[in-house]
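Item description
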Amino acid sequence: MATVDADAMPSLPGDEEPPGSEITIETIPLSPAAARGTFRRLPLLGEPSTEPAPEPAVSRRPKTDPRVRQFRRTFYRDVPDKLWNDWHWQISHRLRNLQQIERLLVLSPDEREALARAGAKLPVGITPYYMALISPHDADQPLRRTVLPSMAEFAAAPGEAQDPLGEDEDSPVPGLVHRYPDRVLLLVHDFCSTYCRYCTRSRVVGHGEIASTQARLQMGLEYIRRTPQIRDVLLSGGDPLTLSDDKLAWILSELRRIPHVEFVRLGTKVPVVLPQRITPALCRMLRRFHPLWISIHLTHPDECTPEAFQACGRLADAGIPLGSQTVLLKGVNDDVETMRRLMHELLKMRVRPYYLYQCDPILGSAHFRTPIAKGLEIIEGLRGHTTGYAVPHFVVDAPGGGGKIPLLPDYVVGREGDDLLLRNYEGKVFRYPDSAAEPAPANVEP
């Protein structure tokens, strides 16, 4: 399989061409003789080949999701491709209020009332691209529930808090969280192109409290410089990939100048909600700062569109390892089949399933939160029933600053004598020799 890189193709002004401009070429490498099952001497290096080159078979994958095409024909017919595929245009034309959204969706009474009240708690913001993936009529559609507010988010349940993870307590300077000994979280700003209704940082995100000013960022960078045990920096926010290339490159270059910072991670949902942002220019810039890792927030297999595939492909082709972070959400992805489909799609997108998060107890999130047992049930439904690469770590981020705690189904049944009793994915019990005492040496005379 060979790919014609979009870098070699005509580009839009500023080299900002979006995902969707690549052509996949499938090449059949067998010669006619090899196809007949016979063999011939291969030419030595520099010798001309007498075998005619095989004709490549070209197959075109869809560049855009059918839902996106239909949405554009219905609501954005006059918007040319150049604008639709410009990530700046997508951000500046986000759907942000009741009047804009009700032109595109048939709202339920609950959604209408929540949109009229939304903004004080967590702003509404949905890119036109992501809005195209949302059902216009079904208020219970998983993607729709994650980005449209409901009245349930205005009710606080027992145990919920504005800052349930205690990040503010572990913040030595504004916009930086230092919880684990060797790594820090640097919040570059508080802006996202699309806001998730279950956001852990809804207390600050979208309210302009964390600005991407050089002065504020320098405070965080200076703290990292004078703290030599920090070897790993996670850039988050807000979404770091909504910064300009120049601003993000400045942050990464400053971190790369710190000798004890070994690698940098970025947490983002941009490849899913704003794939137009993943341009060849961005990828060329990012690859200058390896080792660099990216964690992508994906929620449901309906997000795995051709556009998202190509965005992740560009990042992977730039040598950036990709991992997923998925929040377990009631009525969205809380069943084994949906989660299995999502994990399989991620692997095809070259994104390694990494974390499955229990939904944090932020204020107004009870309608999204499942029992812990549901997450364990999903992990048990994946483990052994699909490839191990498709099984994420199920974690609870402990309230009060306890950090991430991994949870697994109970595969240890007990012990009989020197044997450990283990249960496999089929429910069968197996013995494993696991003596607690040192065995006597063999073949030794008394």
About this structure: The first strand starts at residue 2 and ends at 4. Residues 336-348 form the longest helix (13 residues). The chain has three domains: 66-147, 168-407, 411-446.
